[in-house]
Amino acid sequence: MYLIPQGTTYTGGGDGPRTTALGSRPKLLNPEVAGKVWELVRRNLDWVAANHSSETCDWWEEVRSSDFFGNRYTIAQGAFQADEAEGGPAYSRRPRRSAAAGVIQWMPAGYVFEPFQVGDLEDGLFGPLSTPVVRTLATLSDLFCKSYAVNQQAAAAKTPGVLFGRYEGDSYDGGNPWVLLTASAATLLYRQAQALAKGGSMDADANQVLHQLLGRDVTQQNLLGAGDALLLLMKKYLTNGMHMNEQIDRNDGSLKSAKDLTWNYANVLKAIAARKAAAATETLVI
């Protein structure tokens, strides 16, 4: 890590080494240089395989634990990339795959939905219509609706939508709604709409929770509408020419904290893409 613009090595404190990051390095390799640096990447994977149960920090760099959904995703991705780089089954990958399995066994269910988006391997674990994901979305929606005055004002005016923050008791810069997380919640609703349209199913408990959250039947169109409501409520507060600050003030809706946060724009674009994909999916009639 280097300081910009000085170009000198950073020697301060940090939260590493992060097992949630090291495992994903093969996925980021440029194919043209992969062969030249693979040995270094393989050492990273071997370190993760040997130390996957050690503590690392969460995406917000505030909580330390060994139980993060991101661990499972990055370790699995690292193993998949190792298959390709090392020529398939001949390469000994069992330690890496065992590490990924260990993360799954010890993974708690109470994570926020952002990891559900980027950590989904489409293998059924924490899919968009699964009960843990549906309950997480509903619980956080209820929490933030009650926590932020801007959401209470919207509810009183019968304006649909909820602005989402990070977690209960967040104190960073006042603990406000975040643009990127509101967009992420919308993305999840769009993914649920697409999954349902493709014939996906949910158990009775998940259906009841989602029905209560929507206030109407769980259909593709109603899920699309719920996602739209989140983005439209968020857009209401983007009063600076659609520039997106990190946070929206919980009381008066003013933009605050970091300006033009890149993660915001990435998540909004993901939400737009997810909506387009969901709307283009014809409902499967059985």
**Relative helix content:** 40-55%
Beta-strand residue fraction:
under 5%
Question: How many helices in DSSP terms?
Answer: 11
Strand order of the largest sheet: 1-2
Q: What is the total domain count?
A: 2
> Averaging pLDDT over every residue, what do you get?
78
Extended strand count = 4
Overall geometry comes to: globular
The biggest sheet amounts to:
2 strands, antiparallel
- The end-to-end distance, rounded to whole angstroms, is 54 Å
Structural class: mainly alpha
H-E string: HHEEHHHHHHHHEEH
Low-confidence stretches are 89-111
Radius of gyration: 21 Å
Summarize the structure.
With 286 residues, the chain is an all-alpha fold.
Can you tell me about this structure?
This is GH15-like domain-containing protein. It holds the Pfam family Glyco_hydro_15. Residues 133-272 form the GH15-like domain. The strands form two sheets. The chain has a two-stranded antiparallel sheet with strand order 1-2. A two-stranded antiparallel sheet has the order 3-4. The protein has 286 residues and is an all-alpha fold. Helices cover 51% and strands 3% of the residues. The chain folds into two domains: 19-108; 131-280, no CATH class. The protein is built from eleven helices and four strands.
What key phrases describe this protein's structure?
single chain; 286 residues; mainly alpha; two-stranded antiparallel sheet; two-stranded antiparallel ribbon; 11 helices; 4 strands; 3% strand; globular; 6-hairpin_glycosidase_sf; hydrolase activity, hydrolyzing O-glycosyl compounds
